[in-house]
């Protein structure tokens, strides 16, 4: 029996998944979550085999929730979303997701993906697999703009798991200033979130 937690902020989508998986032999839905923070709490409380995780949710998003659940090591995370941009795919995989499927995928593909992830394998939709291969074939390029010393300081602390409030206290600056530095960093690196900013900066040798 594969124990599942379903995290999606759309009640209709979540209910549909619960109904589908509850009726499928070999699956048991042990929890639901409407946002990333709740997904982390429910996963900790129920110890599922797999968490089906949407990406865009209020508050803590799917990437951050995936990172926190993966760090605990109590469950595998399978992204199930409508979004498939390169940065979103890479951010999710780098956060620790074991698979990335699209909600538009056939039912059999979703069920097979859950089984694969539960068994410790990887599950990627064909579209996502192609995007990842294409991305890996692209030659590495330097960011179009160099980060300022302060932006590097902020990103280095973010890489250590510090929140915006903690970064502000560490550097003696306002929390709004931290947010401004991060937004400028995202723009310079061409990314959309903290996780991808840190990983890309490390890849480019911008962080120690």
TrEMBL record:
Q: Does the keyword DNA-binding apply?
A: yes
CDD domains cross-referenced by the UniProt entry: LuxR_C_like, REC_NarL-like
Look up the signal peptide feature and give its range: none
Q: Which InterPro entries match?
A: CheY-like_superfamily, NreC/VraR/RcsB-like_REC, Sig_transdc_resp-reg_C-effctor, Sig_transdc_resp-reg_receiver, Tscrpt_reg_LuxR_C, WalR-like
Pfam family name, one: Response_reg
Response regulatory domain segment(s): 3-118
Residue ranges of the TM segments: none
Choose any GO biological process term that the UniProt entry carries and state it: regulation of DNA-templated transcription
Residues where 4-aspartylphosphate is found: 54
**Any one Gene Ontology molecular-function term assigned to this protein's record:** DNA binding
Describe the location of the HTH luxR-type domain by residue ranges.
Answer: 140-205
Keywords from the UniProt entry? DNA-binding, Phosphoprotein, Transcription, Transcription regulation
Q: What is this protein called?
A: DNA-binding NarL/FixJ family response regulator
């Amino acid at each position: 029996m594969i124990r599942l937690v379903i995290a999606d902020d759309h009640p209709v989508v979540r209910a549909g998944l619960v109904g589908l998986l509850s009726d499928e032999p070999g699956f048991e839905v042990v929890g639901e979550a409407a946002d990333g923070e709740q997904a982390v709490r429910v996963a900790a409380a129920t110890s599922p085999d797999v968490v089906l995780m949407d990406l865009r949710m209020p508050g803590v998003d799917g990437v951050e929730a995936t990172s926190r659940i993966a760090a605990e090591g109590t469950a595998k995370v399978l992204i199930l979303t409508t979004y498939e941009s390169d940065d979103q795919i890479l951010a999710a995989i780098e956060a620790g997701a074991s698979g990335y499927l699209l909600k538009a995928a056939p039912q059999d593909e979703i069920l097979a993906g859950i089984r694969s992830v539960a068994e410790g394998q990887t599950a990627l939709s064909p579209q996502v697999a192609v995007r990842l291969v294409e991305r890996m074939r692209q030659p590495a390029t330097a960011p179009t703009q160099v980060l300022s010393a302060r932006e590097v300081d902020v990103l280095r602390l973010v890489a250590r798991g510090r929140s915006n409030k903690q970064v502000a206290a560490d550097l003696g600056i306002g929390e709004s200033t931290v947010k401004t530095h991060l937004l400028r960093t995202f723009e310079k690196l061409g990314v959309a979130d903290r996780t991808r900013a840190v990983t890309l900066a490390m890849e480019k040798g911008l962080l120690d």
